Amino acid sequence: MTIDWETVTHVTKVDPAKDLPPDLTVLEGTDLILVGGSDGVTEANTLEAVREIDAYRPDVPVCQEPNSSTHVSTETIDAVDALAVAAVYNGDREHFVGKHVDLFTEIGRKPDEITGSSVPGVGGFVESKGVDVVSDLASKIFGEGYVVQNLESTAATRAGVETTYTPEQVAGAALATETFYGFPVFYVEYSGTYGGTRDVEAASRYIEETTLLYGGGIDSGEKASAVLDAGADAVVVGDCFHDDPETFRETIPDR
Ligand code: 1GP
C-alpha cells in the first residue's frame, strides 16, 4: 500500500515495548500507524505489534519507525507498508547520518540471505537479482526530517539532542527539508509534552510539498485542533493511545 499523505491528518504512534489497548476499535478513524519507540524496542516486539495492528486495520498504512538497524529484518520489511527513518537535525551526527548508513548497509546485506548469493557459482544472475531486491527494500524507506524539542524526552537523550531549536531554526530546518534534503515528512517532535503551536506555525511557512507532522502531549481534541489549525498536516498521538485509549478517541479529528 502506498501512503497518500494528502489523506493523513491523524497518526497513531504505537510503542512496541508497551501493551496495546485491549479494545483496538479506538483505532477507527486514524489514518496511519507508526510503530516505534525509544526504549525496550526489539525486532520481535515490533513484528508482533505490526502484525496485530495490521490484522485489525488492514486498510491503513502501517510503518515501522526504527531507531536502530537491529530492529529491521526482512520480516519487518515484508510486514510493513513502509519504513520511516528519522533524521534528527538537532541531534548528534550518528542520528543525522551514521544510523542511516548503517541501515542501508544492513539492507545491502539482505540479498545474501534472500537469494543465497554467497553460494559459489551462481554468478551474475544472483548478483542482478540481488540489486533488484536491494532497490525493492530501499524503496520502502522514507526519511523524516526531525526536530526534537523536548530535552527531557528519551527521544532527545537517544538522539544526542542537547539544545532545542528556536522557531527561526525550526523554520530553517523545514525549508531545508522541502528544498534541500527532500524528505517527504518534517516532524516537530515534543514527545511526552505539549509544545504548543509556535514551531508548527514557523515550519508551515515554508512547507508545501512536505507533510508537516506534530507529535507530543496531544491528549484532547482541543490540542489536536490547535496544532492542525496552526498548519500541521497531521497530529501524531502516542502516550495517550497506550495510557488512556478512551480519551485518545477524542484526538481523532471529525471529518
Ligand atoms: C512520540 O510524537 C510522538 O514520538 C507522540 O508523542 O507520546 O507525547 O503523544 P506523545
Automatic annotation (TrEMBL):
UniProt-listed Enzyme Commission number(s): 2.5.1.41
Alphabetized GO MF terms: heptaprenylglyceryl phosphate synthase activity; metal ion binding; phosphoglycerol geranylgeranyltransferase activity
Domain of life: Archaea
NCBIfam families: GGGP-family, PRK04169.1-3
Ranges annotated as spanning the membrane: none
Name of the featured protein: phosphoglycerol geranylgeranyltransferase
Gene3D superfamilies: FMN-linked oxidoreductases
Keywords: Lipid biosynthesis, Lipid metabolism, Magnesium, Metal-binding, Phospholipid biosynthesis, Phospholipid metabolism, Transferase
GO terms for biological process, alphabetical: glycerophospholipid biosynthetic process
InterPro entries, alphabetized: GGGP/HepGP_synthase_I, GGGP/HepGP_synthase_sf, GGGP_HepGP_synthase
Catalytic activity: sn-glycerol 1-phosphate + (2E,6E,10E)-geranylgeranyl diphosphate = sn-3-O-(geranylgeranyl)glycerol 1-phosphate + diphosphate
